[in-house]
Amino acid sequence: MIATRRRVSARRKRPRGPFARLLVVMRSMSRVTRAALLIGLVSLILLAALLARSCGGGDDKKSEGPNLLANPGFEEGKNPWYSMETSGWGEPFEVSNAVAHSGQYSAHLSLRRPPQPNQHEVLGAVQSLTPSSFPEFLSGFYRVENWKRGTDIQYLQFVVIAVLPENAGNIQIRYLLAGTATEPFEIGNAKFVFLSKEEPKIGEWVHFERNVADDFQQLWGQAPEKVQELRVFFEARYDSPTAIQPDVGGDVYYDDLYVGSKAEAPTYP
Predict the structure, then answer these.
(1) Positive or negative CA dihedral for 201, 180, 78, 90?
(2) Are 124 and 109 in contact (CB under 8 A)?
(3) Average pLDDT over residues 144-164
(4) What is the mean pLDDT of residues 100-104?
(5) Per-residue DSSP letter, 82
(6) Which of 19, 40, 88, 178 is a good FRET partner for 265, with 20 to 30 A between their CA atoms?
(7) How confident is the model at residue 117 (pLDDT cuts 50, 70, 90)?
(8) Distance between CA atoms of residues 49 and 182, nearest Å
(9) Which pLDDT score is estimated for 114?
(10) 86 versus 27: which is more confidently predicted?
């Protein structure tokens, strides 16, 4: 009998530790009280998780948003950006560490008089996209150094080209950033939008942005719901009916480019 009592006493020994003591306290409560306590604990946990997310906790960088452009700051080299090789295009763009809006690198376009006289010269960084729907918003930064005007129509622009399905051609909008107060030329499948008619600012980063979906809707009557391909160009160029001056030139940089939802576009100080 003595041994039996010892075994029973051992089985009824109270657990130790803070969690175990909490269990003992909860067992002494009524069911209603225990249920209310559990609901309160769960509510506190959910509230803490929501606060952490709203304050930027964790690894989810919601502020940057889903950028449809790959390598938008050129920190990973040139790919998948490229330069066109068609007539009128000059030297391919380079990735430069001379200046950068953020990070260490940017795209550099070196505008110079070509070896052979030419009435136009285009430099640019291009990326081709296949979005599931037409993007809403485009933004970025450009910077200009050593600007030497060799012709009246020497300017910066970005271009959005929507290649339509079923071989229906393309429609495009050309956004003039700086350098010209007149449309450079006429082209049947393109519209021009002026963001500035002034000379480019020298030695500072200039922000630009545009709701491209609204612009296509207003200028073309539609922002195509489906496109076979979307091409975005960031350029420095000149178009001149006459010979250009020998000292034409400029170093143009693009950085921190974005295509996507306006609500999720990145913000910078």
Answers:
(1) negative
(2) yes
(3) 94
(4) 97
(5) B
(6) 178
(7) low
(8) 54
(9) 73
(10) 86
Burial pattern 3-30, b for ≥16 Cβ within 10 A else e, equals eeeeeeeeeeeeeeeeeeeeeeeeeeee
172's tokens: 């495009």
Burial pattern 32-65, b for ≥16 Cβ within 10 A else e, equals eeeeeeeeeeeeeeeeeeeeeeeeeeeeeeeeeb
Quote the tokens at residue 27: 């067992």
Distances (CA, A) of 93 to 78, 96, 126, 154: 9, 9, 9, 18
Percent of the chain with pLDDT over 70: 73
For 170, left (φ over 0), alpha (ψ -120 to 50), or beta?
A: beta
| Mean pLDDT (whole number) for 45-51 | 45
Residue intervals of the chain classified under CATH 2.60.120.260 are 94-260
Residue type, 135: P
User: How, if at all, do strands 170-178 and 190-194 pair?
Assistant: parallel
d(CA 169, CA 162): 9
Domain 94-260 has CATH 2.60.120.260: yes
What does the buried/exposed string (b/e) look like for 203-232 if buried means 16 or more CB atoms within 10 Å of the residue's CB? eebbebebbbbebbeeeeeebbeebeebbb
Pairing of strands 106-112, 94-96: antiparallel
Model confidence at 18: pLDDT above 50: yes
Question: What's the pLDDT tens digit per position in 244-263?
Answer: 667 788 999 999 999 999 99
